[in-house]
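Retry 2 of 3 after timeout on previous attempt. Resubmitting structure tokens to design endpoint.
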């Protein structure tokens, strides 16, 4: 009986070379010397960088939406929306410089007065959230992930 795999030029599964296992990088330990042929690689720690960046970006986007809403009616704006373009500090400055906006609407017997109060507390919360996101992202660079990699 003729082996069909040998006749077709294919190798039998038993004859195939075993796949190479990936070479594992040695674990870096600061108390031990660096293994020969390896260098220390430092990268921002993703466990801090990713949540910090997402937190900062999401709260900054919310702040920009707040600024757009204020720019829709500049006559009755309670804050200077330009400050909100500045991340982290902008919401605090806008909250500190906010003011009431009062006026009248309508005409004749339907005329009435109104006062719009600034949302200073909301701006301060957005500024605080941005500060936390920035602190997380910055700390990922201050406490980097260290690992030993083969030198090239």
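Retry 2 succeeded. Sequence:
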């Amino acid at each position: 009986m003729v082996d069909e795999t040998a006749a077709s030029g294919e190798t039998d599964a038993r004859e195939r070379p075993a796949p190479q296992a990936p070479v594992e990088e040695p674990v870096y330990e600061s108390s031990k010397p660096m293994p020969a042929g390896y260098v220390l690689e430092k990268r921002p720690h993703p466990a801090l960088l990713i949540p910090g960046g997402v937190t900062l970006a999401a709260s900054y986007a919310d702040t920009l939406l707040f600024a757009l809403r204020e720019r829709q009616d500049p006559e009755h704006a309670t804050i200077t929306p330009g400050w909100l373009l500045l991340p982290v500090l902008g919401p605090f400055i806008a909250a500190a410089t906010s003011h009431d906006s009062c006026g009248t609407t309508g005409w004749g017997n339907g005329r009435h007065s109104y006062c719009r109060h600034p949302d200073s507390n909301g701006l301060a919360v957005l500024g605080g959230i941005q500060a936390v996101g920035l602190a997380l992202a910055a700390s990922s660079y201050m406490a980097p992930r260290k690992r030993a990699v083969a030198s090239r």
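Attempt log closed. The beta strands are 38-43, 101-105, 112-116, 145-150.
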